[in-house]
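HUMAN: Would you supply a protein with fold tokens?

ASSISTANT:
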Amino acid sequence: MRALISVFYKDGVSELASFLSGSGWEILSTGGTAKYLQENKIAVTDVSSVTGFPECLDGRVKTLHPAIHAGILARRDERSHLETLEKLGFSAIDLVCVNLYPFFEKVQAGLSLKETVEFIDIGGPAMLRSSAKNYRDVIVLCDPADYAEAVAALKAGNVPLEFRKRLAGKVFDLSSAYDAAIARYLLDDEYPQYWPLSLKKGQGLRYGENSHQSAALYLHAGPPGVLGGMEQLHGKELSYNNIRDLDLAWKAACAFGLPRAGIGPVGEDEVKRMVPAASGGAGGVLPGERVCCVAVKHNTPCGIALGNTPLEACGKTCACDPVSIFGGIVTFNTKIDAAAAARLGELFLEIVAAPDFETDALEMLKRKKNLRIIKLDKAPLETHEYSAVDGGLLVQQSDRKLLEKWEVATRAAPAVEDIKDMIFGMRAVTFVKSNAIMIVKDEAATGIGGGQVNRIWPAVQALERSAAAIKAAAETGGPWKDAAPARVLASDAFFPFADVVQAAAASGIRSIIQPGGSLNDKLSIEACDKYGIAMVFTGTRHFRH
């Protein structure tokens, strides 16, 4: 019996080779693996002595030879195959243990193109695929986690066909992800003929959205996204719903900048170019180093605000919807201090996430036994978003554009003090399910309505909730400067009728920001002019389904 062992990662390989050698197997090997096994006192036959050719081209060619691949691919139940091996002087290879050059890791390392290409494995995938195709006769191992089971089966004198088939399936699972990572790295076509996805199982989950649905988390095998680099500091295991909500909440917080990473708000350059100088210039409308706090429930924000401190931002966020935040997820775009942690400790939350935590803040939050405390310090990297449909995958660019224009469509222009809230509202409303309306006061959402099949319903809900939230805050010494109604309304898409403007006017709204583009824009403009409301068209729709 013959085994070919050629691995980059040496974990567990000496134990496997020791068992095979002790059981009478001849072990073929190459380069660094052969040296490693010899250092562990395991007899090895160098592949070059089988092929009759030395390794060449700096090791690029070692196993790409008929003596190797014929030995792997020969079917033992085909007499002609065995006769061919004998005629050529080749011997069958019965076990192949190979893992691949670390292309996934090297892509993450940020090497040059020339350096990275050298970590594209050729011989390894070829041997694995050959072995997997002939799995009935060849045991193929590409994952160290399978070594022990293979040894146990060999000791028992029976390697079941189903086990062999599963090992073969793992080869093609690996090679498809490996090739997809290479394709993704090399392609410059935004939408290629085939969409390459290279995902590795991060963890199994107890269940999906509901307890009768199974689920797992898969992470990019190449450059890790936010969730691939997160650190859980405390609390229960994350669930499917936790992960989806955390993803949205973190993206919303980072949309207002990630000071720790030196990253500015989404659409920062667009705002600098388009918002009039009367607003105080770019510094007058951009949040800069402001703290953003986001609360998410059922994958939509129930509170979002900016503040000068984590406590201030947290207070505004909690005041928006103190009922819905129960059991929610809260994220910050900056380090959480003890004052904010004490406020969060008054709530029942599933997750608190931030780039960092002061020592006292972390200890305070840990008093909640089941609270999941997550450290995230990377900005979202995904350039595209995916949505599974039956039989395929919808792929689109991530929504990173804030404004196409800043067009005052009404006779009245927005008051200077309203422009900050308008920019804030347009950024924040993009994370609310459509149809989405957000009411804003002092760079904080005071009322949020979304996920409805028409636009007037979320408008009415958001306005009613805003009035209730401001009243409650005024009565309890809450976060807003005064008890006056919110003045700004932001919408993710255009108004098909004048009804939203009419409802806004009745609630004291003085400035509206929306994409525009409806055939009935004129009706909304006329209604705004009637009530003295300023309305700005941005030209950019932000549907979220």
About this structure: The two ends are 58 Å apart (CA to CA). The longest strand covers residues 300-307.
